[in-house]
Design goal:
2 copies of one chain form a homodimer. Chain A contains 12 helices and 8 strands. With about 325 residues, chain A is an alpha/beta fold. In chain A, helix 2 (about 35-45) runs antiparallel to helix 9 (about 260-275), helix 5 packs parallel to helix 6 and helix 6 runs parallel beside helix 7 (about 215-225).
């Protein structure tokens, strides 16, 4: 059932760096232009296949002044970093169902430097996601559908969603472990289910991990082994709460010589260490482990961190109280 | 091939807390008596099956004044903590081949509060380990053989070692990922090999993880799923270099209601946070990831940490230079 072994070069694999997008949830998307530009160059040198620049959030729903620019990913802001993007790396943005003015805020692909639009939705939003996917596809973009919080969805609904997506124009279907609650055995089960269904329609499958139980990397390589090709990473795992699968762990693991860990190490030293020193918080800690273990949204754990609490035992009891 | 599923209660499982022993490598075994006593009580409340108190190191090879007492685990020092150990939890100590005066330093089991002696060796020391195992067995102790650095051993030698151990009095055979270089696929392969051979002689199998690539927990539950029953943990993963599988992650995962995560959280808050604040270092970081990735001893990475270096990229290059 596994595709290849630990020595295989899997040419189908695409590494997608989501540092600005998922990491932006840790610092209100307030990255310096230098940071984003250096990350862009780093990713190219490291062999990363896609770089996600942020969200295309609705300017009517969100006040532009309240966020860094990568919450909105205006064409001119991306171009200020990448120019015409004369590289082999593709540019992605994320569009949330219900929080994106998708009909007005996207240029035709021929006029945009963006290559892929990733549509993020919950299971009940699949029909709305499909409308967006067909719109983006008609504009000429590659698309993915990132179904979030899948660990709370009954399997029959997952199957229905996958079969519905098979009939759409979507290119990539993502398994998203929003709560970091999957164990490798679960991730493997999901991976086989997703791959088996998606393969029938020639869709690619991808995985987006969260590190609540220190399993983001383990789950990522588990799904990879069962045919997943789109693999999300962030530098040093920077992402909401416990963060994501680290770029350096996955790039270190991959056997394709096109991938190169060294530029990422240089970037970490120069640009990530100051972020951490400045107090931007993310990464595995007990509060996130609890919400992962309980298969629930990390919002209380994020608040625990934001309030600099260290009373883990009390917090654990609070979480039990809520249910 | 997997034994049970994610809902199973596996009554064969034994959780072994190695915090004082492996964590002692981070602080020269200088734990306060209060720390050790509270950990002892915590482990009992948490349902931990074995607690390892440290090494029985040779008093002729090591100067007693240079180390905390848990490097030597004298009978009176253990008894000062546990009394007669009137609990369901067993007491273990580790004896290193070549660094232990095993013929003189162990009482008969009937006079000792120690239940299990874990013999740690490299593959070429198996004959020496066997001599020790038979000695400890004759004294009345449970024994394990912990073959270290297994990721650098050709498979035919692993098989020979396991078959030799099958003919001994050893109770438990441990797979030890000393360098944190195993991926879950490797760990699974090893687990099936160990289990299949050991089962023929009615031996139990165990796993000791290191967290260099953030896979200690993932590898532990992977080996568990293939029949491993002795599972080593340390509180907050405290152990040499990148540390081990965290007690709280494994206890959180296990479905047997005898295990209880809450006492561990209380202990972490009260006793582990001050250790970290005092500058005791362990846990996942890039320097350990590199040595794990390269399947080599973490000594240079430990020195990198001890020297408070942050030049990850240079260090990575230095490691490449060495080979």
């Amino acid at each position: 059932m596994r595709k290849g072994n630990l020595m295989s070069v899997r040419d189908d694999i695409k590494v997608l760096d989501a540092t600005i997008r998922d990491g932006g949830l840790c610092n209100n998307f307030e990255f310096s232009d230098e940071f984003v530009y250096e990350l862009y160059k780093t990713n190219i040198k490291a062999g990363v296949d896609y770089m996600e620049f942020g969200y295309k959030a609705s300017l009517s729903m969100f006040n532009e002044a309240d966020y860094g620019k990568w919450k909105f990913c205006k064409e001119e802001d991306i171009r200020a970093i990448v120019g015409e993007n004369n590289s082999d790396m593709k540019i992605a943005v994320m569009a949330d169902v219900g929080r994106c003015d998708f009909k007005t805020d996207f240029l035709p692909k021929s006029e945009s430097v963006i290559d892929m639009v990733r549509v993020a939705c919950y299971i009940h939003q699949i029909p709305a996601a499909l409308e967006m996917i067909e719109h983006f596809h008609a504009l000429g973009y590659e698309t993915s559908c990132n179904i979030m919080a899948i660990s709370q969805v009954p399997t029959d609904q997952v199957v229905q969603a996958l079969e519905t997506l098979n009939e759409s124009s979507v290119d990539v279907i993502y398994l998203v472990d929003s709560f970091g609650s999957l164990y490798p055995e679960n991730a493997g089960d999901f991976a086989r289910l997703y791959y088996e269904i998606a393969e029938k329609a020639g869709k690619k499958v991808g995985f987006h991990a969260h590190n609540n139980q220190n399993l983001a990397f383990a789950n990522t390589i588990e799904t990879l082994s069962y045919g997943f090709s789109f693999l999300d990473v962030t530098v040093q795992g920077m992402g909401r709460g416990a963060g994501n699968c680290s770029s350096e762990l996955l790039i270190g693991f991959l056997k394709n010589p096109k991938y190169n860990i060294y530029p990422i190490l240089v970037f970490i030293e120069k640009y990530m260490a100051p972020l951490k020193a400045a107090g931007v918080k993310w990464g595995y800690d007990l509060q996130y482990m609890f919400t992962g273990l309980m298969n629930r949204h990390p919002r209380e754990a994020i608040a625990f961190s934001a309030n600099d609490r260290g009373d883990y035992a009390n917090f654990y009891k609070e979480l039990l109280d809520h249910d």
